[in-house]
# Entry
Amino acid sequence: MKDDPGLPTTFDSSAIAKDEMNWDAYAEHYDLMCALNPAYQENINLLLERLRSWQLPSTSTICDVGAGTGNYICAMADQFPDGAIFHIDFDARMNELAQQKYLERGIKNVQILQDHILNIDLPKSSVDLVICINSIYAISPQKSVLEKAHEWLKPRGRLFAIDFGRKQRTLDWAIYLFRESLKSGEVGRYAKGLIEAREVMKQNRQSTKGQKSGRYWLHSTDDFGKSIADAGFEIEELFACYRGYADLAVCRPLSN
Ligand SMILES: C[S@@+](CC[C@H](N)C(=O)[O-])C[C@H]1O[C@@H](n2cnc3c(N)ncnc32)[C@H](O)[C@@H]1O
# Structure
């Protein structure tokens, strides 16, 4: 009998499938695209608004699943100077870029856990807030990711999830980014971005292939809410965001 290879512990860009995104290559251009994309900042603001109303203690334990280049952690770290922040991502290049930012900004309480999320064990009921931003769709089975978050959360903890669930329409995004750059007088930056964005477009095409093959989860807002409820959460908020391409859910674990 063959040994079960199990889940990869790190993303291996030399062995990607035709319908799979190359997160290493994406990482190099990720932040430039985010800077050109006001909808990305709007998503960060949605989290910051909720943090203001939740008033979590500065000692909170926070976990970012699929944390990428660390933009969300950078945006909220100053609210948790005495807490513990876990950055989970299996892609080495994303993590390197995040680490650089944490160093530059003097954010010292982040621990980067480089592994497939489903290989990671945090103590049960130990986390105050889990965030998953545009990562759940990419990780199968989604149910297991949601169950992990449920297991890690304290009884009064929260999951804040935004998840890209609609068909990727690359042209629609290109037009949107161009219009936004016109409004902000950043056309030069957009043109530079377009040149650099070739790799991002390539990755977007890969993601379209992955959506077609079923590797990446396509969902409606209702599907998303149902999966979250099935994993044992009570939903406080659920609505479409990110120009209608993603869904946002805020939820709390129901007791087992
Ligand atoms: C679209 S990016 C989002 C990054 C970040 N959350 C943000 O919004 O800027 C998705 C991230 O999920 C990570 N990822 C995908 N599958 C993963 C897995 N199985 N385990 C851990 N991280 C994963 C990728 O490496 C990538 O950094």
In short: Strands lie at 61-65, 84-88, 110-113, 127-133, 153-164, 233-241, 246-253. The two ends are 37 Å apart (CA to CA).
